[in-house]
Write a structure and sequence with these properties.
The protein has 32 helices and 25 strands. The strands form seven sheets. Strands 9-6-10-11-5-12 form a six-stranded parallel β-sheet. The protein has a six-stranded mixed β-sheet with strand order 15-18-19-20-21-22, sandwiched between helices. Helix 6 packs parallel to helix 7 and helix 16 runs antiparallel to helix 17. By secondary structure, it is α/β, with parallel strands linked by helices.
Length: about 850
């Protein structure tokens, strides 16, 4: 067997065994892991490798039980500390150390890592000692650098191969003979001509770079001798659009939805569970929660952002009732109860609970794999993640985990998972992951990942001079970081030396995360060779210069749709609803188009991947607690405030869990104080005036013959003796004052009409109660002492304007005329009554802009 070896070839190789032929037998090009696996197979040592995260976990008990230089760090971060200790130990073992005693920290390092699970250095040493003349099937080993330049353990492996019959040869790399800038850049003091043979492609975004690269590749007559360095899914998407072979560039590992299941299910054990994390779990395309039930629970979270709220339980029960199979129903109920069981009420996550949830997901995944094999999902990453998580938990020796330790463990396991390709790897376009993978000439080279982050860094060991001397005494010579940096820089030169016609270096100015990117360090070396560094601009371009690139065709520009102020549709399609509420009337008056689309068309923006922030939830949360308090009946203000605080503490985690998560202590204290203040204020008002509680969010209905509809509404609070209505508002004191002053309070007018019962009866007094501030706002201060008095229009006049406006808008709709006030040349700047008709300011928050044209006007 003939083997060609290089330390970079685990990331691919060029040209490989098929340099000048269509088939090859008994010849392999391999990197370190490939050669190690081959030797282990020959010697009978082959077995599954141990993931690095699992090896780290196996070291955690030792570093926690041994008091040495790492002890303080191990208390805070045992996994991170173990990972660092293991890095040091493997580095030393790779360069010949075998755990011998020495000076400084070496004895402690040898002691604590004595029983660690084997890694690549251990496998290499075992392989070197097992190779014999009987099991060595490698006849030739070709290298591209002397064995002396390799780590000592690799030198031992090569020596063992040589002694058992392998012929080792050093193979040179013959440079290409290009022309133009690509040839001139090999010398110092060169002046680029910008002939296109050497280019640094610097468009603004990776998407623009991918479009350029794919266009250039599509113009090449033959791709057989074209190589791409470091392709990714962004480039693959462009290659796919141009009908070119794709490279199998993987999506980021955390974009694999299956790998999100375990961390999210583990999060559900904390009490209270984070509703945002619960939402993310429910919205996964594949999860242990069936889609029908998940959608119901998502709606419940959007209304009451807490797991196990009353609405959550109702949604869950409704979903479960639709499952006819009793056996499946029982298993599903048990699974959901286990997932959404917030059993951890302190900061310690028991190991038993981690194992329970891992086992639950393992059983679910295996069941899905058996019963739904046609799904086409790659379950292996999830299965491996679950298995390795279980091993880590067991090996760590910990009885409990903290939240950061759980996150660290899952992160370390997940990053080792294999990535899923956006498109499959196809023949026809050669690609490697690093520039060192090239060892022979190529006609064209596209170095896609030509950025500073891809260059990596040299391992700088932490050992002191005294420790290094003691290592040298036993024959362990650690590499000099400076020499390693020079070696890396030489190997980076390979694309520069091996490109025959064109070398395209790609470094967009911004990354996919919109962060500034800088070229690979090789670019600094190229700039340093220039006669005048200002001439570097001749090599930089936003478009690839090549006569073979297809000509850019500009499509005829089509103007964006303009915003429409009125639509004309078939009036028979506009059905008159049987009933209207204050909210639907406000929508109808402010924008008939929005009312038509959302109320009749039932078109919504769909599910959102984010819940409201705690700050946005404050008003709603106080409202909900006051509702529950008022339903218990009238009580003294002081007692009401105390009771509100009790409801806040006891029921709050099941209403708005975010307030009770770590990190929200200050906000939770402020909201609780505001809740108690609001409760005291509303009951103080009732005490002072003698109000009783008639109804709390009770539905009222009444026919309106003149409007040919039935009105309905749920006033937040209806008081009795004397009768009055109060509507709770979350904030916006100035806005509500303006509304009352201008007579545009549709809500209070409709509620007042529903309470008075008939047109001839007087309107009851009404007010807004501002939940965040505990203030009352009204136009009738006599009925509500201590309220903020507004000199405004009476509700009777507002109600009359409501009727007039409704009739006018309905006449327009009956003619098929649908108004869009927000697109008028001069939309109302303030809501008011004009000539007896309500003229409402168009809504400022609307997601229908693309339908009415408003979004296109903003784009211009």
């Amino acid at each position: 067997m003939k083997i060609t070896f290089d330390m970079a070839f685990d990331q691919g190789c060029w040209p490989g065994p098929l340099t000048d032929r269509k088939a090859a037998a008994g010849e392999l090009w391999v990197g370190p892991l490939g050669l190690l696996n081959l030797i282990e197979t020959m010697t009978g040592l082959r077995g599954p490798g141990i993931p690095g995260a699992v090896r780290v976990a196996s070291l955690v008990p030792a570093i926690r039980q041994t008091s040495r230089f790492w002890s303080q760090s191990a208390v805070v971060d045992p996994f991170g500390t173990a990972a660092k200790i293991l890095d040091w130990r493997d580095f030393l073992f790779l360069h010949g150390w075998q755990g011998e005693k020495g000076h400084g920290r070496l004895p402690a390092l040898a002691e604590v890592t004595a029983a660690v699970l084997p890694g690549i250095p251990d496998r290499l040493r075992q392989a070197a000692g097992t190779i014999s003349g009987q099991n060595n099937a490698i006849s030739e080993l070709h290298l591209f650098e002397p064995p002396a330049d390799l780590p000592r353990t690799w030198q031992q492996v090569i020596t063992a191969l040589t002694q058992t019959g392998t012929t080792v040869a050093i193979q040179g790399i013959l440079p290409a003979t290009p022309k133009g800038d690509l040839a001139a850049c090999r010398k110092t003091a060169f002046s680029p001509t910008g002939d296109g043979s050497l280019q640094l492609l610097r468009p603004l975004t990776p998407g623009a770079a991918a479009q350029e690269a794919a266009a250039w590749l599509s113009g090449l007559s033959n791709l057989d001798r074209t190589v791409i360095i470091g392709p990714d899914n962004t480039l693959d998407a462009a290659l796919y659009r141009f009908g070119l072979p794709t490279t199998g560039g993987g999506i980021p590992v955390y974009d694999n939805a299956l790998l999100q299941i375990l961390p999210l299910v583990l999060e559900m054990a904390w009490s209270p569970p984070d509703p945002q994390r619960a939402l993310e779990l429910l919205m996964l395309p594949v999860s242990p929660i069936p889609r029908g039930i998940a959608f119901r629970l998502i709606r419940a979270l959007q209304n009451y952002p807490a797991v196990e709220s009353e609405e959550w339980r109702r949604a869950l029960d409704t979903g479960l009732q639709e499952i006819p199979d009793t056996s499946r129903l029982k298993n599903l109920k048990n699974r959901l109860e286990a997932i959404f069981n917030p059993c951890i009420r302190d900061k310690q996550y028991p190991v038993t609970e981690v194992h329970t949830r891992i086992d639950l997901l393992r059983n679910w995944a295996r069941g899905r794999m058996q019963h739904d094999p046609a799904e086409g999902l790659d379950w292996q990453p999830l299965i491996a993640q679950l298995e390795n998580a279980g091993r880590m938990v067991s090996l760590s020796g910990l009885g409990h985990f903290t939240a950061p330790q759980i996150r660290r463990m899952i992160h370390d396991i997940t990053v080792e998972s294999h990535v899923l390709p956006l498109y499959p790897d196809q023949a026809g376009l050669a690609h490697v992951d690093a520039p060192e993978c090239l060892v022979d000439r190529a006609e064209n080279i596209l170095w896609w990942s030509f950025n500073r982050d891809s260059a990596g860094s040299v391992f700088t060991d932490p050992f002191s001079d005294d420790e290094r001397r003691s290592l040298r005494d036993i024959g362990v010579v650690l590499p000099d970081p400076g020499r390693q940096a020079i070696r890396n820089a030489v190997r980076w030169q390979r694309p520069l030396l091996l490109a025959e016609k064109q070398l395209i270096l790609v470094c967009p100015k911004n990354s996919l995360a919109n962060e500034e990117q800088f070229p690979h360090p090789l670019w600094d070396e190229l700039v340093g060779r220039l006669k005048n560094s200002a001439n570097a601009a001749a090599l930089e371009t936003r478009d690839i210069l090549s006569p073979k690139k297809p000509a850019l065709k500009k499509r005829k520009r089509i103007p964006l749709p303009g915003p429409e102020s009125e639509l004309h549709i078939d009036p028979t399609l506009i059905i008159r609803p049987e009933s209207e509420s204050p909210d639907s009337l406000s929508d109808l008056f402010s924008c008939p188009f929005r009312w038509l689309v959302t109320r009749l068309g039932r078109i919504s923006s769909g599910l959102s991947a984010a819940l409201s922030s705690p700050e946005e939830l404050e008003g709603w949360f106080i409202h909900e607690i006051l509702r529950r308090l008022l339903e218990q009946g009238k009580q003294a203000p002081t007692a009401a405030a105390k009771k509100a605080g009790s409801i806040f503490d006891q029921q709050g985690p099941f209403l708005a869990a975010k307030f009770f998560l770590p990190g929200h202590d200050d906000l939770r204290a402020r909201v609780k104080s505001n809740t108690e203040t609001a409760a005291a204020q509303i009951f103080r008002l009732m005490d002072r005036v003698g109000f009783s509680i008639d109804a709390v969010e009770q539905k009222y209905e009444q026919k309106a013959p003149s409007l040919k509809i039935t009105l309905n509404g749920r006033p937040d609070l209806v008081l009795g003796t004397p009768q009055a209505v109060i509507d709770f508002k979350r904030g916006g004191v100035k806005y509500r004052q303006t509304e009352l002053a201008n007579g545009t309070s549709i809500q209070l007018a409709v509620y007042g009409h529903l309470l008075r019962g008939k047109e001839s009866a007087p309107f009851p007094p009404a007010a807004y109660f501002m939940l965040k501030t505990g203030q009352l706002i009204t136009t009738e201060p006599r009925a509500f002492p201590e309220a903020i008095a507004v000199n405004g229009i009476e509700l009777k006049e507002t109600w009359q304007a409501v009727k007039t406006t409704y009739k006018a808008v309905r006449e327009e709709l009956d003619r098929g005329e649908v108004g869009i006030p927000g697109n008028q040349e001069e939309p109302p700047k303030e809501s008011q009554i004009i000539d007896g008709r309500l003229s409402l300011k168009p809504c400022a928050f609307c997601n229908l802009g693309a339908l009415c044209g408003q979004a296109f006007m903003e784009a211009e």
